[in-house]
Amino acid sequence: MPRLAVACVLWIGALASPPAAAQVAAPDPPGPYVIDVRGVTSAIPQDANFFPPVPTATIVPSRGYGIDVGAHVYLMRLGSGRLGIGGNVVRVRGTASPAAPSSGSIPATPAAAIRPDVRATLTTLAPQLSYNFGSAEGWSYVSAGLGRAQLRTGTSAFGGSGSTSSAMPARSVDSGTRSSINVGGGARWFAKAHLAFSFDVRFHLVSAGAEEGTAQATPRTTLVAASAGISVR
Questions:
Q1: Within the chain, what is the greatest distance between any pair of CA atoms?
Q2: pLDDT for position 188
Q3: Is residue 108's pLDDT more than 70?
Q4: Which one of 30, 44, 140, 163 has the lowest number of neighbouring Cβ atoms within 10 Å?
Q5: pLDDT at 37 over 60
Q6: What is the DSSP letter of 218?
Q7: pLDDT tens per residue across span 70-89
Q8: Cis? peptide before 32, omega within 30° of 0
Q9: For the chain, give me the number of helices (H) and strands (E)?
């Protein structure tokens, strides 16, 4: 009888205990891939070499707004994280106009004719190798890579009040494509199985470039871009 009781207790205990694998099951790793679509804002270089010649005190855009589109694939585990490869393309546009004259003042020449409107369009291509840590439900990452950057700027006509002899025509400048090291990081949180909120902060170290063809010589510059939006998988 005691042996039968012991056997029953052991049998009931075995039924009550879930399999060990179910108790310690590890969460799925980041991935297997994502596509990012985000709004982005980025600094725009302020050095005069990036812009056409303009009068002193002309306002130039310091920041642009646009879209950030990217894709990443997660290949293999590395320690507790996972390596990924991918990249993103950012395109932003910024504009600046001369300040309106103060109320009550009557300038001799319209403000728009004295100083021009200025526009700038920045495009970056940023391939990346990333290290991702977390689970498939949400993860953070750091990444870096070598890509390209290009800035195109332009001005409206200015310098006169309609007189063709004194007005300066609209002008534009193209930096050409410059090599750019990008370093940054961010995170993704999946509220649903295939949809996540994501953000990214990235530094672009854009190299200097000599004048070549229609491209103007430009100095080395560092730009910071921040984006937020959605990721799908």
A1: 117
A2: 97
A3: no
A4: 163
A5: yes
A6: B
A7: 999 999 998 889 999 999 99
A8: yes
A9: 3, 9
Q: How many CB atoms lie within 10 A of CB 64?
A: 23
Give the span between the Cα atoms of 146 and 201, in whole angstroms. Answer: 16
The terminus-to-terminus CA distance of the chain in angstroms comes to 60
Phi, psi of 3 (to 5 degrees): -65, -40
Kindly report the number of other CB atoms within 10 A of residue 94's CB atom: 21
- Looking at per-residue pLDDT, the higher value among 31 and 7 belongs to 31
The answer to whether the CB of 98 falls within 8 A of the CB of 113 is no
Cα gap 225→90, rounded to integer Å: 9
> In terms of C-beta density within 10 A (0-12 exposed, 13-18 middle, 19 or more buried), how is residue 17 classed?
exposed
Q: Which two tokens stand for residue 20?
A: 């060990």
Tally of CB atoms within 10 A around 4: 8
Residue ranges of domains in the chain: 31-98+109-232
